[in-house]
Structures are given as structure tokens and as C-alpha cells.
Design brief:
With 135 residues, the protein is an alpha/beta fold. Helix content is 27%, strand content 20%. Strand 4, helix 3 and strand 5 form a beta-alpha-beta unit. The N and C termini lie far apart (34 Å).
Length: 135
């Protein structure tokens, strides 16, 4: 299914694109990724996305890993969506799995549809992600 002309979607990683041993929900070629993962997690995040054939633009959370929270990640996503709209992007849907972050994004950007994927397949709290390429 396609968006109206000029609209793109944004995707969280953990719980949306990455669902542990499951495939997840993948972005289209023009969509973007806004993750709560810290910038210091970029190498393993990029490797994991590339292993799934995903090369979309990724906006990482600038907050250091040890200082970030679910609320901080939600504010990062809302601020990023706001900034990108100021540059001319238009969003149809943001795909999210964390209800705390979804609510923050809805409050900050009420005109963007936030689709909440509800499941318990991955941890919602701040956890380190290691990527080991399959042989």
C-alpha cells in the first residue's frame, strides 16, 4: 500500500523492524528510521539493518546509552519528526511498539498517525544490542 503523494513513514527499530528471531515490519525505500538506540550503538545497529537488506536513513538518539530512558527516546523521536517536517518532509505514519514513547510522540506531533504494535517479543527497557553476523 502506498501513501498519498509526498508522504513518508518513519519506523522505530526495536519492536518494529527488529523483533528478535522474527522478521519485523520493514520500511519502504523512501521511508526513514528514528530509533531510541544511542549514537554509540550505531555500528551494531547499521550491521543489523544491512543484514536485513535495509539501507534507509537512520536517526539515532544523541543521548548517551547510560543516560537514556524510554521517555527520552520518545522525546528524541518527537523532536526528530518536528525537525524533519521543518525541512519539508511530510509523514503519514510512525510505527512504534512502546506505549510510553507512542504517547509522547502523539502529544508532540498530534497530526502524525502513530501505529502501536503491541507484543512482548523484545525488551522495552534500555538494553545493549550485539550483532553477530550469521555464518
Amino acid at each position: 500500500m502506498r501513501n498519498a503523494p509526498g508522504l513518508i513513514n518513519s519506523f522505530d527499530i526495536d519492536g518494529v523492524i527488529y523483533m528478535g528471531k522474527y522478521g519485523g515490519v520493514f520500511p519502504g525505500p523512501h521511508d526513514i528510521i528514528i530509533t531510541g538506540r544511542s549514537k554509540e550503538e550505531e555500528p551494531e545497529t547499521s550491521a543489523m539493518l544491512l543484514s536485513k537488506g535495509i539501507s534507509n536513513k537512520v536517526y539515532m538518539n544523541p543521548t548517551p546509552f547510560d543516560n537514556k530512558s524510554r521517555e527520552d527516546s520518545g522525546r528524541h523521536k518527537g523532536r526528530t519528526l518536528f525537525y524533519l517536517e521543518q525541512t519539508g518532509m511530510r509523514f503519514g505514519i510512525h510505527f512504534e511498539d512502546d506505549p510510553v514513547q507512542a504517547e509522547i510522540i502523539r502529544k508532540m506531533m498530534p497530526h502524525i498517525n502513530v501505529v502501536l504494535l503491541q507484543h512482548e517479543l523484545v525488551e522495552k527497557e534500555n538494553v545493549r544490542h550485539e550483532f553477530v553476523e550469521a555464518c
